Amino acid sequence: MNLLEDEPIAIEPEPKPARNDSLFDGDTGTLPLDARRALCQLLSGPSIDAGRHSQLWPAVLRFEAQLRARLNDLFLELVIDRDAGVAFTRQADTGELETPVLLRSSPLTFIDSVLLLYLRQQLAEADAQGHRAVVEESVLVDALSVYEKNLSTDRAGFNKRVAASIAKMKENHVLEKLRGSEDRYEVSPALKLLFSAEDVQSLAQIYRQLREADENMEEGANER
Q1: Residue 100 has what pLDDT?
Q2: For 208, how many CA atoms within 13 A lie in the half-sphere containing its CB?
């Protein structure tokens, strides 16, 4: 009498029940909607401002730990200034560990650096008086005009560089146009985190030396 071996029975796994908190078909994420939106804004940059992003800012504070973990997975760091109401993302300091760089960087020209320094100083003065920093475009042009000779270019070329630098600050949301105004802008509080007081002093000293050197050369030329 031959005994037939039992054939294996294929058992199909039961489909997992759909999660009640999933946001779309196939969603395996665990963050709620507001936290995901905040994460997207942090990654797209340049910052989350409590004034401009009134719905995202509370999510940053509420889900800070989860957002930090997600960003750390990408070798990024979350920076938050609760007093200023600003949060942004920067590359984590990983030491000698080779890691991919996800955040795009934009090289700064001489005029860009000078403009950022000026805006940072305006921000510091406004903070000391307890209000937001607001600047006019014409005032920015005048403030930068003292560096015109350092670029060895004509007036029209200098004005073109200044306009390009101001446009870059607008594009990167360092300057936010005020409603109902064509040439008045609010300076992003994020600059306080990007440039410390020590950074401002160091840069100010460098540019002060540039101006003094230029003035000395002009005086020497006039004496000849």
Answers
A1: 82
A2: 6
